[in-house]
Amino acid sequence: MKKLIYFSIISSMIGASVISISIGAFQLSLFRGIVILMLLISLLKLLSGKKLYVVKNKGNEFSIKVMFIWLLYAFFSLAWVKDYVGWLKAVFFIGIGFITILIFKEYIRDKNDILRSFHMIIPMIIFHNILGWYEVTTGHFFFLSENKISKYLRYGNPVSTFGNTNDFAVFLMFAFYILYICLMNTDKIINKTIYMLTMCSSVGLILFTMSRASLIGLILGFFVLTIYSLRKEKTRKFILIILCSILLLLIFNANIIFNFFNNISNILVFDFLKQQGSEFVRINLIKNGFNFLVSTLGFGTGAGNIEYWMSHYGEYYTGVVYNIHNWWMEILVGYGLIVFTLYILFYLKLFMDMKKKYKLSNNPTDMSMSLGIMCILVGYIVASLSSSSNINAEWLWVFWAIVIVYQGMEIDNA
């Protein structure tokens, strides 16, 4: 079963559009098929009278309850939704996410399993980096729809298997800190070299995606890494290596650094006063979202129904863009004030629990994993604003499952 879990982690990073079977309105991806298989195995285990593994520590009980309430609320929002297909898809993805969390909680037993889970992601990170650079250098896209190729070819934006640059950039932001976790937990020089090079590669690809939110998220995460790692010798060495590498580049080829920061400054240009462009549309999407929230008395449009409301009841101009393009607004407007409040509390508690693990543990593995997760949590606050929606991102549900399971584990000072 644990091998199936590791296989599900790898398959979630491939992308639903790459390996999937069409079943009516749904695509049965490899990951979804594995999750359903693991669910059936667990149910058969229960029916045969075998006891499931029970985690004594209840540190993640609140997180699991929030996810269950979210799923329950999404299901009962059927009472007022207008788009039933959109509702069904949203409930399906939240359900798959919740099942993934329960299964991982059942079979992932200790921090070594968590670390092994992160290591399972590394080959896919390397794969997406290679594919991203191939797209940048050749202009060939294997997994991009025909109507998007000309646009991405013009700007040289990589997408890998993610379908768009913003989703790819969010993945790369996560990848940077997952690589950091693995880097801090290996003694092999070859592995360290590969992880460091892939981290640099991921940063470069984020710049090529031109995703401002993911770039800001990466910077915020690195700020957290710097602040919290100052008192830890191993992470101080990591930051020192980064700074020395930058210094060497300045000495031998200063133009590389200057061009790097120039590219960052060009990407991080916002103009919220313009009456056109992406910023204008995103602001109007948010304005419409608040209108919908008021219209539904704070209950939200219901699962998967924001796009329907945006296309039929939007007062502010959004062109042909109907997805709200903001993870936090998607939860608030789609699922209402109650679910949004619980989700914020879940997110804050998750961060505080990681912070507690980092401060109280003397175990290098716990320290690096908790710090890496903290960086991702802070970075995701902003990075999540770039994607049109994250509800159907399988790899994200897998990541949250791993982190929530780790949240429930006791601090190890060995």
- Fraction in beta strands: under 5%
- Secondary structure: helix percent: over 70%
- Reading the helices and strands in chain order gives HEEHHHHHHHHHHHHHHH
Q: Indicate the radius of gyration in whole angstroms.
A: 21 Å
Task: Calculate the mean pLDDT score and round it.
Answer: 85
User: Poorly predicted ranges (pLDDT <50, ≥5 residues)?
Assistant: none
Could you give the count of β-strands?
2
Number of helices: 16
Structural overview:
This protein has helices at residues 2-12, 30-47, 61-76, 84-107, 111-138, 146-155, 165-183, 189-209, 212-229, 233-252, 254-267, 277-295, 306-313, 327-360, 364-383, 394-407, and strands spanning 20-23, 26-29. It has 414 residues and is mainly α. It has a two-stranded antiparallel sheet. Strand 1 and strand 2 (26-29) form a beta hairpin. Helix 5 (111-138) crosses helix 7. The chain is globular and about 55 Å long. The model has no long low-confidence stretch (mean pLDDT 85).
Short description:
The protein is built from 16 helices and 2 strands. It has 414 residues and is mainly alpha-helical.
Quick tags:
mainly alpha, 16 helices, 2% strand
Q: Secondary-structure map with pairings?
A:
Layout: H1 2-12, E1 20-23, E2 26-29, H2 30-47, H3 61-76, H4 84-107, H5 111-138, H6 146-155, H7 165-183, H8 189-209, H9 212-229, H10 233-252, H11 254-267, H12 277-295, H13 306-313, H14 327-360, H15 364-383, H16 394-407
Antiparallel strand pairs: 1-2
Helix pairs in contact: 1-2, 1-5, 1-16, 2-4, 3-4, 3-14, 4-16, 5-7, 5-8, 5-16, 7-8, 7-9, 7-15, 9-15, 10-11, 12-13, 12-14, 14-15
